[in-house]
Fold this protein.
Amino acid sequence: MKLTLKVWRQAGPDDTGALHTYALDGVSSDMSFLEMLDLLNEQLLHSGEEPVAFDSDCREGICGMCSLMINGQAHGPEVTTTCQLHMRSFSDGDTITIEPWRSGSFPIIKDLIVDRAAFDRIIANGGFISVNTGSAPEANAAPVPRDKALRAFNVATCIGCGACVAACPNGSASLFLGAKITHLGELPQGQPERYSRVATMVSQHDAEGFGGCTNIGECAAACPKEIPLDVISQLNKDLRDAIKHGY
C-alpha cells in the first residue's frame, strides 16, 4: 500500500508548526496506525531526518495516550483508539492528514504530542474518594444496587484520552468530567464528597480553559469507550444540587 502522509511537525511549544508531506510505501493493511508511523520513522531515520514524535504506551486501547486527529477525526474513521485503528480502514493511494489534538487546553509539546496535564489537575481537584474507611471492609457491607454498579463500571471505562475535547467544537471536557463525576456519584462511598467534588472539579475545568457544553454530541460520537452523553446531564444535575447546598 502506498500512502501520502501530511504530518504536523512542530519543534517545540513556542515554535510555529506546519504540515509536512511524506510518501510512504510498503504499508500492510494488517498494520496498526501506530505501526505505520513506526515505518515512517524508520524511513526518516534512514534518510537522516528527525523522526515524528508521537505518544503511545500500551498499544492495546487501554491507556489513551495514542491521541491523534486523523483526516479531521479524533482517533480516525473508526470508533476506537488510534493504536487499535488498522490500515485496512484506508485504501492504496490515500492521502492521510495527521495532527495533534486541536485544543488550547492541550498545548503542543512536540509534533503530535500534546500536554494533557489539565485532565490530571481536574482529577486532583476532587476525582477521588478520600473518606478514611480504615482496613478493607467486608464486600457486602455496603450493598450497591445492580443498575448503579453497572453504570458506575461502564462510565469508569473512560481512559482520559481527550478525544471528546478534540471532537467538540467548543473544546469542552464535559464528557470526561461527567464520566468521572458519575462513576463516583453512583456509589455509596462517593456520597459524602458528592457536592464538593463536582463544585471543585467544574471550577478547575473552567480554569483550564475548556469550553462549555452546548449538547452537540460530537464528544460521545468520538469516544473510543462509548461513554454516553447522559453523563453530562448527571454532571449538570449534581452541580445544580451542589449550588443549592452552598458549594
Observations:
- Residues 116-244 form a domain with the Fumarate Reductase Iron-sulfur Protein; Chain B, domain 2 fold (CATH 1.10.1060.10).
- The chain has eight helices and seven strands.
